[in-house]
Amino acid sequence: MPRLSEERREERRRRILTSAWSCFSDNGFHATSMDDVIAATGMSSSAVYRYFRSKDELIAAAADEALALVRDLFARLLERRPTPSPSEVLTAMAAEARTRGEDQSYDLTRIAIQAWGEALRSPELEERTRSFYLDMRGNLVELARRWSEEGRLSPGADPEQVATLLVTLMPGLLVSRHLVAPVGAEQLVGGLSSLASVFDDA
Prior knowledge:
It is elongated and about 60 Å long. Helix 1 (6-27) packs across helix 4 and helix 4 (55-79) packs parallel to helix 7. It is an all-alpha fold. The mean pLDDT is 91. It has 9 helices and no strands.
């Protein structure tokens, strides 16, 4: 039997991953079995196990992809020129939380929420999750530093504190979308503006 090309191997691996993401998105990590994933791929069990030896490996790969989705949003914003304003960043965050996965058979934002819970159980995933968030926070610190240099923040504003606030908002946006109601950019901007005026008066 001829050996598979690298391109074909990657295509098969991706097929397994997207099938797993669909199952995890619909039923969660622990209610999904390897048999469920294998059935979704349409491939033989031996073919699937050639790429992923266990469900834990699939969960780790799914978590990596979902967490990278959140982290890379801020990396893309950091690359933009001119630097996007705080309002534009909040708009991008709200849009990412509201629309991601609408045109796919899986929703990686649902998997991201599951990954946070799984990280409390798995020390390995906890470490990887921490690494993703430190990278994300680093991008936000750099954005906040640019805002400070451009005069978009109040004099004396601490970029580290601004980054901490923004990195904390993103999980809340995803949880709200799936468990309460999607949050719009205008709600974020309005709420933060109202809070800022309260603290200014304090």
